[in-house]
Amino acid sequence: MQIKPYKEEFIKFMVSCGALSFGDFVLKSGRHSPFFMNAGAYTTGSQLAKLGEFYAVAIHETFGDDFDVLFGPAYKGIPLSVATVIAYNRLFGKDIRYCSNRKEAKDHGETGILLGAKLHDGDRVMMIEDVTTSGKSIDETVPVLKAQGKIKITGLMVSLDRQEKSGKHDTETDACGGCGKSLSALEEISGRYGFPTAAIITMKEAVDYLTTEPCGGKIIITDGIKSSIDKYYTEFGAS
User: Which one from 4, 106, 120, 150 is the annotated catalytic residue?
Assistant: First the structure.
């Protein structure tokens, strides 16, 4: 299936920056994964500028302009939100405020739990993250946002949808209370909080592309890597 050009470019960008790699990785959940997503690999000004552009395009295409604030949970969400609001203004001419949280509230200077813009009643807040496998950071963040006033969370954009069931449900066959399905972390978040979730790319899009198209002059996903990925999704893939 043909994917949009910006998605193809993003896949190549992730690989070239070392943000998406393949091998044998142990995740926080304890799973052994044949691939790993690391937003900490984006370290230069040019990389962050480009990353912000990809997020801005994906958010604009998926959610439109119906939001006032872009919120990035600490810590990785802070540079993501800053880079994206800059790109959004340049590409689409709308000045979006950025906001992030601290891990601990500050009691001097700029006090409180938030960085950047203050939140006000009526604000429409878009959330941004790198990737989510369990939804833990969102579970921690939503109460912080709701405590700021009568705000509306309009959506969540991540860079990569791993399309696997949440790490909370490794020993369960049904992650949605009897519906007969194992939901992905993004699906669980959407169902739990009632706002839509999306990703710049899905893991299926990345795998399909990197199996057939060269990146950096070579095919990234060989038959052996593809076999490991297929085995992983047989066990952990969302239905």
Answer: 106
Partners of 68 in the β-ladder: none
Token digits of residue 94 = 């709308």
Q: Is the peptide bond before 75 cis (omega within 30 degrees of 0)?
A: yes
User: Do 146 and 220 touch, CB atoms closer than 8 A?
Assistant: no
Cβ atoms 129, 78 nearer than 8 A: no
Q: What was the pLDDT predicted at 167? A: 59
Strands 152-161 and 124-129 turn out to be: parallel
Nearest to 95 by CA among 104, 103, 87: 87
With helix as H, strand as E and coil as C, how does 71-82 read?
EECCCCHHHHHH
Span 200-224, pLDDT tens digits: 999 999 999 999 999 989 999 999 9
The band of 29, judged by pLDDT with boundaries at 50, 70 and 90, is confident
pLDDT, one tens digit per residue, over 100-118 is 998 766 554 444 788 999 9
* Catalytic residue check, 60: no
Catalytic one of 28, 103, 108, 218: 108
Higher pLDDT, 76 or 111: 76
Closest CA to 42 of 52, 56, 32, 33: 52
